[in-house]
Design goal:
Blueprint (H helix, E strand, L loop, with lengths): L3 E7 L5 E2 L15 E7 L1 H10 L23 E2 L4 H7 L3 E2 L3 E6 L5 H12 L5 E5 L4 H10 L7 E5 L3 H9 L5 E5 L16 H18 L2 E7 L11 H5 L2 E7 L6 E8 L7 E7 L2 E4 L3 H6 L8 E8 L2 E13 L7 E4 L3 H14 L7 E7 L10 H14 L7 E3 L2 E2 L5 E2 L4 H10 L4 E5 L7 E4 L2 H8 L4
Parallel strand pairs: 6-10, 6-11, 7-8, 7-9, 9-10, 15-19, 17-18, 19-22, 22-23
Antiparallel strand pairs: 1-2, 1-3, 4-5, 11-12, 12-13, 13-14, 15-16, 16-18, 20-21
Helix pairs in contact: 5-6, 9-10
The chain binds thymidine-5'-diphosphate and magnesium ion.
The site of thymidine-5'-diphosphate (TYD) has 15 residues, from helix 3 and helix 4.
Amino acid sequence: MAKSKTRYQCQKCGAVYVKWSGRCENCHEWNSLLEQNLPDEAAVKGALARGAISGKKLDAVSINTIEPSDAGSRLGTSFSDLDAVLGGGLLLGSVNLLAGQPGIGKSTLLMQICASISVDRKVLYVSGEESAGQVKLRAVRLGASSEKLHFASSTSGNDIAKTIESAEYDLVVVDSIQTLSLAEISSAPGTVSQVSNCGNLIIRAAKASNTAVVIVGHVTKDGALAGPKILEHLVDVVLNFEGDRYGGFKTVRAVKNRFGSTNEVAIFEMGHAGLSEVKNPSEALLSERQNTDGSVIMATIEGTRPILVEIQALVNPTNFGYPKRTASGFDLNRLNLLIAVLEKRTKLKLQDKDVFINVVGGMRLNDSAADLAVCMAIASAAAARKLDENIVVFGEVGLGGEIRSTSAPERRIAEAKKLGFKHAIAPATIKDKFVLPVKDLRSALVKYMNNK
Ligand code: TYD
Ligand code: MG
């Protein structure tokens, strides 16, 4: 084996340096270099140079002779929306990464999935974070009581891979990859080398034994997966669990899926008996609505699903020189841009006003069609005028103040009709009697913000 030497490896991008420095030259991350014992690179390179090509010829076959991994090998999770996100359930032999903030409900969701799959299949739940007693407590709460559901507490990547390889279980849950380590590697759990090597072993074992594996991954406060990005490339499916930790809706969406599309989304709510799917989010989101000024209902699309959400704006005079802008559930840069457009293209003056935007229910809007609704909410709050309560709004706002068309207008309109709305303020390109067409921001405000 090659001699090992002390090296400094960036925990974000994996670049290796001989000397420590405060900033990674490669990815420009601060304070990410960590001392590690890595194999001597010169020795490895020397071996490669000497050995010429030492592999053997691949056994390639015609693609027509290959059997597809059959569709029957999917495990249903008992959550129909989550199955849709996965492309029809957990595929045997696939490795799925579930990433989310601490406390969002990853362990809860996985225990519920284990409970339902273990009714007729053998399932193993491995925890490196919690003791058997703690896991049992949660299992009891969630009603997981099958004989076929096994539990083990371990932080050894090797032991877990060996267990997966034995093909005893159809589903193995590993909670979480950041706690695992390999004895051969000297660095601490959660570092680039530990996470990627443990990940690699587990993936190899899953493929060899045709076991479905779900790996839990922690994310840092800015939403990136803690540890290396490499893991996201290695696994088959990356699921992001997002939302408010305390109450509100939580969403699971696939940011990568080798066996399905990435535009489905499952919406969950945490209750006393674990997570449950929210089948009719619009109704739940609008149930506590009071039509005040600054409140606008927007028809958004989450994945392929239309949802009506309330956007609230508050506009106050600024106390000290610099106006404050805050957005919850909406991109702050986008808000600043929209405020600039409002100031330039309409008569609204906001330079001495604090502007706050809130998307009700813990939803995060990533939809450019929210622009018009946000603008109208700000205008409504600034002028203390209400928008008609039977109107939904959607449309993208351009820098010239023009209203641009959006994706899937028919689905947004259908959802609004279903919930009893009478009209939609929307881009003029949509031909529908339901739509009150608007061409630019100014005319939209003049026309619909004038009634007291
Ligand atoms: P958990 O699943 O442990 O989060 P993670 O594994 O992502 O860190 O728990 C999430 C939170 O959910 C926890 O604070 C307690 C709460 N919870 C409930 O409200 N109801 C329940 O039935 C359970 C099991 C947990
Ligand atoms: Mg957990």
